[in-house]
Design brief:
Elements lengths: L3 E2 L8 E5 L2 E9 L5 E7 L6 E5 L2 H23 L3 H14 L6 H15 L2 H15 L7 H14 L4 H17 L9 H10 L4 H20 L26 H10 L5 H10 L3 H6 L5 E2 L4 E4 L10 E4 L2 H7 L14 H13 L23 H14 L2 H8 L3 H8 L5 H7 L20
Helix pairs in contact: 5-6, 6-8, 9-10, 10-12, 10-14, 14-15, 14-17, 15-16
């Protein structure tokens, strides 16, 4: 069936009719004196006028529109009760937004062309809302400072604050931008570039995740980009240790102020946090022991650790020192570890018969793990080693039994300075 149009050229508006559908065509004179032709279009539920340059174009457009609307009438007339119920539900759902059903359906169809399916469309809408709400733009550095202030006010321990400050300062130095602009890909790339051991990677990821949770709660970021960053599995049963050759290279490369810390960790098994709090008065070379006071120990219980003969050789040059063994900050201590490991690299020099050597890779907690492993192999006494470490015999058995052989232990505790270690005399360090 073809649309029928009224052809009386003196009668306006004209009407193109098909069945029960009638589309009006209007003629208007423009300011320039020309005629313009407009089709009244109700396809989306509200009237709009579509303009055309000629009467013929307007009538053809009106015919197409009449066919479209007539087809809708046919479909509406043939709807089942269920379809009619769906239609009514759709109209009701759109009523609060004052959006006609045809317009909503047309827009939905266009969106589905872009994203493919309804779940993806919903996710895209959620992403749009979260990223276009009004976020307070605050640099990462400022958010770090605010977080530290809140943690300090809430009574966090000094050790926890030191660790938090160290990791977040390092992160903030790499991200000199607003917190809300940091992406998952950027955080992932940064963590990958640090070449961290699994445990260190996990620690950094945890702390940065905390930072962005803090930022989201205060509207400095729309979401937490760390949520999508790769999780690295840390196997608590895997213990990394240094070999005797590796510890000898590390001690030879260490700066004088860091060397005693390195030796104490390797040959007395103190935790790095305990070494940072250790004072020279706690070290009794004549008596052959180190006292780890309750205020310095992780377990808040005092213990006495024997000083091996080779550790004595490393510490003798520092006789007479006072105050803290490590006078730098926690950040400086971590940096000293990395710098010492990097300094073990040897450039090849074929002319002088020197073979190149890759740097010793720093392994998280490996000094303490090494001492426990070699000491257990040396003594065969889990209880004794546990007392020196400040943990349980069961823990020693679980992690260090048969990890190394007695011959390896002999080589470990034979690592001494190849020549007398000369340490420039320094004024007594202030107790910091």
């Amino acid at each position: 069936m073809k649309p029928h149009s009224s052809r009386n050229r003196e009668t306006w508006p004209r009407h193109v009719t098909l069945g029960r559908v009638s589309v009006a065509v209007y003629r208007r004179r423009t300011p320039a004196g020309r005629w313009a032709f407009m089709v009244a279009n109700y396809a989306n539920g509200k009237r709009r006028f579509d303009s055309y340059a000629t009467e013929t174009e307007a009538l053809e457009a009106a015919g197409r529109l009449a066919r479209q609307l007539s087809q809708r009438d046919v479909l509406a007339a043939s709807m089942t009760n269920e379809q009619a119920s769906d239609y009514a539900a759709a109209v009701q759902a759109l009523e609060p937004f004052a959006v006609p059903l045809p317009a909503a359906a047309s827009t939905l169809a266009e969106c589905l062309k872009l994203v493919g399916n309804l779940p993806t469309l919903h996710a895209a809408a959620q992403f749009y809302v979260s990223h276009h709400r009004r976020i307070e733009r605050k640099p990462v550095t400022e958010v770090v400072q605010e977080l530290m202030a809140v943690k300090e006010k809430r009574g966090a321990s000094s050790r926890y604050l030191q660790d938090l400050r160290f990791r977040l300062t390092r992160f903030a130095e790499a991200f000199r931008k607003n917190t809300g602009d940091v992406t998952t890909a950027e955080v992932q790339a940064w963590l990958d570039s640090q070449r961290l051991a699994p445990q260190s990677y996990a620690n950094f990821r945890r702390v940065v995740h905390l930072l962005f949770e803090f930022a989201v709660a205060r509207n400095y970021a729309a979401d937490n980009p760390v949520g999508g960053v790769e999780n690295v599995r840390v196997n608590g049963g895997d213990v990394e240790i240094f070999t005797p050759v590796e510890i000898a290279r590390l001690l030879a490369a260490a700066a004088p102020e860091f060397r005693p810390c390195l030796a104490i960790g390797a040959f007395a098994g103190l935790r790095s946090a305990e070494i940072e709090r250790l004072e020279w008065d706690d070290i009794d070379l004549a008596g052959g022991h180190i006292v780890v006071g309750a205020s310095k120990a992780k377990t808040a219980s005092r213990r006495v650790v024997p000083i091996a003969d080779n550790l004595t050789a490393w510490l003798v040059p520092y006789t007479g020192r006072e105050g803290r063994v490590w006078t730098g900050s926690h950040e400086d201590y971590y940096q000293a570890q990395q710098e010492t490991a990097a300094a073990t690299a040897v450039e090849p020099d074929p002319a002088n018969g020197v073979r190149g050597q890759r740097p010793v890779a720093w392994k998280a907690n490996a000094l303490r793990h090494s001492y426990a492993s070699y000491r257990f192999a040396q003594t065969g006494d889990a209880g004794r080693v546990a007392g020196e470490l400040g943990n349980s015999a069961a823990m020693v058995h679980k992690h260090y039994r048969e990890l190394v052989k007695p011959a390896d232990a002999a080589r470990w505790f034979a690592v001494r300075p190849e020549a007398p270690v000369n340490v420039t005399a320094l004024p007594a360090a202030a107790d910091a």
